[in-house]
Amino acid sequence: VGMTLSTARPHVVRAMLEAICFQTKEVLDAMQHDSNLKLTTLRVDGGATANSLLMQMQADILGTPVLRPADQESTALGAALAAGLAVGVWDESFIFKPQHDDSSATTFAPTLTPEQVAPRYRRW
Q1: DSSP state letters, 14-65
Q2: Could you tell me if 3 and 40 are in contact, meaning their C-beta atoms sit under 8 angstroms apart?
Q3: pLDDT digits (tens, 9 = 90+) for 41-62
């Protein structure tokens, strides 16, 4: 596992954050391979996105910008849009319009090279 008596809480927390990022990389690599499409930006939402260190680590590990919207709970918006569609409040043309405004989003740009990330990913 790599833990010793000198392993402290910050080491464990960082390992946990890296694991989240590497798992995401694994899934996105498979999706890109299967679809023959290249990920140019990862849009994120949910509670974990409030952690700026995690978002920067994700950008570094993916080698792709990570975009965090000002409203980090897109799931609630999606549920509201689906409910409104189901009861006829709006039609599909409204649903399929972009519902995000990137002007207030935070973008985390990669700061590591693929050569810096590769050995860490292999060890994971």
Answers
A1: HHHHHHHHHHHHHHHHHHHHHHT-----EE--SGGGG-HHHHHHHHHHHTS-
A2: no
A3: 999 998 899 999 999 999 999 9
Q: Classify 76 as helix, strand or coil.
A: helix
Asked if 7 and 30 count as a contact pair (C-beta separation under 8 A), the reply is no
User: Do the Cβ atoms of 75 and 46 come closer than 8 Å?
Assistant: yes
103 in Cβ contact with 56 (< 8 Å): no
Q: Using an 8 Å Cβ cutoff, are 117 and 63 in contact? A: yes
- Closest by CA position to 106, among listed 62, 47, 45, 60: 45
Whose tokens are 């952690």? That residue is 51
Structural contact between residues 25 and 62, judged by C-beta atoms closer than 8 angstroms = yes
What's the CA angle centered on 70, arms 68 and 72, to 5 degrees? 65
* Full-model pTM: 0.80
- pLDDT tens column, 86-122: 998 888 877 777 666 678 899 999 999 999 999 999 9
